[in-house]
Amino acid sequence: MLYSSVWLAGAAAAQTAATFQLWPAVGAARSYRVVMLVFTATLLVYNLDAVLPFKHLQPAGTSLRKAWQQQHRRGLALLAGIAALVMAYFVLADGWWHYLPTLLPLAALALLYSWPLGRWGALREVPLLKVFLIAGVWSAITVGLPTLAHHRPLVGSVGLLAQRFCLVLALAIVFDIRDLSRDRAAGTRTFPVVLGLGGAKAVALAFLAGAMTLGVERGAPPLGLLLTGLSAASVILLAHERRGDYFFALIADGVLLVPAMLYFLV
Known about the structure:
Elements: H1 6-19, H2 28-50, H3 64-71, H4 73-93, H5 100-112, H6 129-149, H7 158-178, H8 180-186, H9 191-218, H10 222-238, H11 245-254, H12 257-265
Helix pairs in contact: 1-2, 1-6, 1-12, 2-4, 2-6, 5-6, 6-7, 7-9, 9-10, 10-12
């Protein structure tokens, strides 16, 4: 569930479902198909990243997650293949190919995040770009696709898009903290590498504050904002590269589920 990114794909699907709550009158069947599209697309991208050949030449070290992925490379590749087939079905059956000019750049950014482009390397190696890229693609998919699916003007979703971007970016910095030693050794300039642990946490908390402020301006339920902010802030403050894999794979990723679930409960 955790190391094969099913948990993370579920978070993306839940956030997509929460976006549909902006339009209560929208049919449930159509919403369900878009949620499944996002789930399978997320599963595909993250498992393709996990089976990259060069990653399986690197020592797992103390990472249980990396060791597990190396041992189950074929299974992850199979899961990615199944996700690709299901995603292709929804793209073709629901007419998403009409939006290819919009979706292809997002797909390219997601795939080129880790896949190297010859001597130029992968996009994640561009100084400080990694977290902005993750947040941009994540928020564009979980907010943009539901908006496109119901032919709504994107301007009506800008507030939620910005709020989700800031929240995901804050949590993405937590994963850069996890990879601090590895990124430093590889020469990848991330916020923790450039600013140190304290500086990176300060930046993450600033973006989290931005997400909460945008939520207040949007009129989001106060209890939902409070619980989301407290859970995200706790993860940021407790983050350290020596934390176990479950801290990041279960708890940190799980924070992304909090605001989505609260849309349905609050």
